[in-house]
Structures are given as structure tokens and as C-alpha cells.
Amino acid sequence: MGVELKLTDRELPVSPAFVDFLAHLVDGRPFTDHEWGDQLSEKLNYAHRDLAQRAPKDAERVMAHPRGRVAVARSYHWLLALLSGNQNALRELQLKFHFVNVIGIPRTGGSYLTKELYRALGMDPATVHNALAHDGFPEAGPFQLNEGANSWVVSLQTMAEYLVMVEAFFGQRPRHSGKIVVPKKLTKGIYAGGFFHRVLGEAVEHIVTLRHPVASCISTYEKSGGLPASGRFALRSNIEEWCRRDLAYVGISGENLAQMDYFDAYLRYWEQYHLYIATTGLSANRDLKVVVYGKPRMEELAQSFHHRYGSRATPGEFRLFDRAQERHPDWMKRAQPVIERVAAVWQRVQLPFPVDQIMEGW
Record's SUPFAM superfamilies (predicted)? Predict the structure, then answer.
């Protein structure tokens, strides 16, 4: 058959995060003041909105520069490789890079561990672009088909862009055990576990962070402006938007969500997220370590990174606050059957789910 399919950047536009990364490269600007590793800040993050607003002007500079044009072309090369299942291209990538992914629902200690991975590798986390290190990139989530956007294609394209960023940023880094280590806080990896597993390689390493749903809910509403006075769910932050999106995927309308108790909505999101960890392909990788939120556990794991990569630095302090049961004892009772359901599913796929540690409520 002589069918020719032509797609342009009108149908598949470059993402704002990728444009921002490339703009730094072509401008010769260092990556500085990236505060994704700040465990304590409760400020809302509007960085994605700002990137989208700057993207058109930044894109002009990127495409006017030879290095920018090469990088954009390379991203479409990777997109074609992913669309067509080019195993040779993926094999070369996997032989060069070792990906260490920190995976967990937001507010479970993943930023701290990702930051310590970079520090153990001798890198200042503040000099690593947010899209390379942190939550939202590559894009993945429950399937959506909207005008001009297919979420499966978006996942493929942002993965292609991420791989170009990895090649550009990490390509000349020192090797450890024969490969260049690439740390990543991969919060969204649970929505397409098999995809990330196959693209990043059989040797990919996953660190899964767990926390009691009451404690992570408290941290979420504090991050988002406080528990709403009405007690009902409110949409103010990225995390709350991800909660809305996931609940919409299982049929909870925006009108119904607005009437839901805040914790009931969050608990449903927490349960779905942890079921995805067990059922979307991540569990096929047996190089998977589970760590429950807590000062000694987090600091011990961080220390192991420094030992493993020959760092002489001391891990940063992992800060704890009140136990969940001291703030919302009634929520603790409502969470118990959900924790038990998730534990049962994890057990069926032979993933450890340390209920006793989770029930500490940090």
C-alpha cells in the first residue's frame, strides 16, 4: 500500500515544558531556582500556567537556533520510534541510562527522596529543570479524548520530549555501574505502568512511597489553601485537579464532586491511585522498593543513596509534623476499610504493603 500520513506541529505541538527547557539551552541560561525539592513549602505552584504563557515567544527563539531545531526534530524522531515500536532505538537508550523513578501519590515524601538522589549524584537539585525531575512530565493519566487532544498521543509525545531532555542534560554525566543514573519523581507513572516500564527498560528501578490517606489528605489541603470551611471538596491546586480528573474517570460528575465531603473525595482518589500501582504494569518490575512515610525510614533510604553513589554529603533532614489521628480521629476510622482493600490487592500481585507502618499515621 502506498499510504502516506503527514502530521505537522499544528496537530502535534511541542509542549510548553519542553519549549522552556530548550529556551534555557539556546539562551545559555543555567537551570537555577527550581524549587521542586522544597518539602516544606505550602505555596501553590503556578509554574505550568506561566510556562504556557511564555511558550510562544520562547518557541520563536528556540526555532531560530540550530541547537533548538535539532532538539525539536529529535523529539519527533523519538515520537516516531515510540509510535512504531522501534526496539533498537529504545535498546540504545536503555543501555546508556539507568532510570530511578520515585513513585507515589503527592505529599508522601517523593520530593525529598528525589532531591537526595540528585544530591547523592553530586548535583544541586535547584539546577535541575522541573520537567526533568518532578511530577507532571511526561504526561499520563486516565484516558481523555478532547477536541484536538488524545491523551494517549500526549503521553507518547511528552515521553519523546522527556527522552530528548534526558539526552541533553544527562548525556555527559559520569556513569555508575556502567550507566548514567537518571532520577525522576514519576507521580503519573502509575496510569501507564507498562508503558513506562517498557520504554525506560527492564532494569528500571522504582521506589514507591506510601503514607496514610488521612495524613496525605491533611498535607494536600494544607498545600491547597486549607480545609474548606464547608467541609466539601474544592478545586484550587494541581493535586485537587488530579483528584477531580481521576474521579471523573469513574463517573463522578463535577456537580456531585462539589457536594462531596473533602475527605471522602480524597479517599476515593487515594484508593484508585494505589490500585493503579498494582494493576497497570508497574508490578511487573521486581526492582521495586516500598518505603512508608516516616523520618527514620526516609533518612535511612536517603543515606543509602549517598553510600551507593559515593557521596560524602549528609542527607537533609526529613521533617515530620502531627500524627493524622491527632487531627482527624474520625477520618482514621473511615480510612481503615480502604487501606485493607488496597492491601489485599497488593498482596495478590506480591507487592509489600506495610499496614503497620502506614497506621503510624505520619
Answer: P-loop containing nucleoside triphosphate hydrolases
Tell whether 7 is covered by a domain: no
β-bridge mates for residue 149, sequence order:
146
35-74 residue pLDDT tens: 665 545 545 555 666 778 888 889 999 999 999 999 999 9
Rounded to whole angstroms, how far apart are CA atoms 262 and 68?
45
Of 302, 306, 307, the residue nearest 289 (C-alpha): 302
pLDDT tens digits, one per residue of 232-281: 999 999 999 999 999 999 999 999 999 999 999 999 999 999 999 999 99
Closest CA to 263 of 161, 179, 334: 334
Task: Give the structural domain span for 251.
Answer: 211-286+322-362
For residue 110, what is the enclosing H or E element? helix 110-120
What would the grid cell of residue 287 be?
Answer: 526492582
Angstrom distance (rounded) from CA 12 to CA 303:
42
116 lies in the same domain as 74: yes
Q: Can you tell me the distance from the alpha carbon of 281 to that of 196, in angstroms, rounded to the nearest whole number?
A: 9
Beta bridge partners of residue 183, listed in sequence order: 100
Of all residues in the chain, the percent with pLDDT exceeding 70 is 95
Instruction: Report the domain count for the chain.
Output: 2
Residue 124 to residues 30, 37, 94, 133, 219, Cα–Cα distance (Å): 12, 10, 25, 12, 26
Q: Are residues 180 and 248 in the same domain?
A: no
Angle between helices 66-84 and 16-27 (to 10 degrees): 140
Q: Which of 145, 91, 301 is nearest to 209 (CA)?
A: 301
pTM: 0.93
